[in-house]
Amino acid sequence: RDEGAATSSRTHLVAEFKAALERKVVDLAELRRLACQGVPDDPAVRPVVWKQLLLGYLPMDHALWAYELEKKRSQYSAFKDELLVNPSEVTRRMEMTISKRKEHNSEGTGFLPRAEIVQDEHPLSLGKTSVWNQHFQESETVEQIDRDVKRTHPEMQFFNGGSSDALSNQESLKRILTIFAKLNPGIRYVQGMNEVLAPLYYVFKNDPDQSNSASAESDAFFCFVEVLSGFRDNFCKQLDNSVVGIRSTISKLSQLLKRHDEELWRHLEV
Amino acid sequence: MASRRRTLLKVIILGDSGVGKTSLMNQYVNKKFSNQYKATIGADFLTKEVQFEDRLFTLQIWDTAGQERFQSLGVAFYRGADCCVLVYDVNSMKSFDNLNNWREEFLIQASPSDPDNFPFVLLGNKVDVDGGNSRVVSEKKAKAWCASKGNIPYFETSAKDGINVEEAFQCIVKNALKNEPEEELYMPDTVDVVGGNRGQGSSGCC
After folding, report:
1. Does residue A223 sit in the same domain as residue A236?
2. What is the CATH number of the domain that holds B51?
């Protein structure tokens, strides 16, 4: 009987959420009030509430949703094109541009166009700005991401178990974390980010709306950035000893613990 | 009570990310291997009761995150360690090359009273992988490194197949006891002026 009561109150809660989300312009205060009791695990509710309310990814006005999503998703696609190409491809593209220009310049001058190595853009280059040098620095980060993505929620078929879906979901997590690391060179990738990202991606991928599910990767990327933006300074090594860094956060936590449970605090401090 | 014998031994496991620190600890404590370990965030520990030369000990094994980022943060638990276990993957040269960094970082953070004689044990893990065909660090090379650091004991292990894990930890216990201060055995009963019962684990020479 208790179970029946729980089910009916859950159904009621889902209905309340749906009503709140169907308003032409979502009332954020109302949605927040509902959400403070927990957002029900309903595929039509949780993804949109997370994207919108908690992370400000979706605007309040329904009329703007399609435009905003389109804009963000194409921006993510541009990030992928720009940041995930390998250095050989970058060099090849540069050479193509140069040889095109050469061909153009040599017209009518009598000089034969010849292939030219783009200065500093080869694997043995020592130049700091060389795409190859950056590549080698980044490869360590990429390896770390790879190791951790493979052991993200290993108990879930969704992420693990060797099915093609699981592999493709792992690839999505890897791309998101790699793009984030490249866009945030002061932070890069820190172990544990995979655990923050995984639930976002899981919920968005299981959205019954086909187009949302298909764009789970890009939506999860932007929402992940939103989640991290609240405490990104904690990840940044250069800020470790500043008032916004992780050490200061840990000592605030310790002070809170001391105030509320001094015995436990003393046990941990010794 | 004539002596206050130490019953807690604290061991810290260090090494690069993915070399198998968590797996080694779990193989030793729970006799199990799983492919399902998550990356260790910060640090974690397990305890095991062990007997050595008719004495009983609680071995407290601290497992740590391999990513360098975590080193500058929570290393308070390095302090008071009785032995430091360094782990590398015999299939990864980088994990071997980093051993110097791990060793030095430990000595700086833990600041033991006698750093030159502090007990380390080195484990070359994952010898099972690919039947040994993907191995890149030879036993000879590893032993040479150990010799250059004051004859660190060395074991080649497989946390997956349970090879040499028990033997390695026996040696770790033995070495953890090596620096047990002599005078501690003759320490008379003392009055605890602090008042709280700090437990036997915090007895020490400081």
Report:
1. no
2. 3.40.50.300
pTM of the predicted structure, to 2 decimals: 0.80
CB contact under 8 A, A144 and B17: yes
Contacts of B35 in chain A (CB under 8 A): 154
What is the rounded distance in angstroms from the CA atom of residue B101 to the CA atom of residue B95?
A: 10
Number of domains in chain B: 1
A57 and A126 within one domain: no
Other CB atoms within 10 A of residue A18 CB: 13
Note down the domain range covering A256: 231-270
Cβ-based neighbours of B107, under 8 Å, separated by 6 or more: B115, B118
Q: Decide if pLDDT at B138 tops 50.
A: yes
Residue B18 near chain A (CB below 8 Å): yes
Range of the domain at B12: 5-177
SS3 A64: helix
HSE-up of residue A149 (Cα within 13 Å, Cβ side) = 22
- Of A222, A223, A231, nearest to A252 by C-alpha is A231
Find the range with the poorest average confidence among A11-20, A82-91, B82-91, B154-163.
A82-91
Residues A244 and A215 in one domain: no
What burial letters (b/e) apply to B104-135, b meaning 16+ CB within 10 Å?
A: ebbbebbebeeeeebbbbbbbbbbeeeeeeeb
Does any domain span residue A134? Answer: yes
Put simply, whether B65 touches A (Cβ < 8 Å) is yes
Three-state SS at B204: coil
Residue with tokens 């194409």: A74
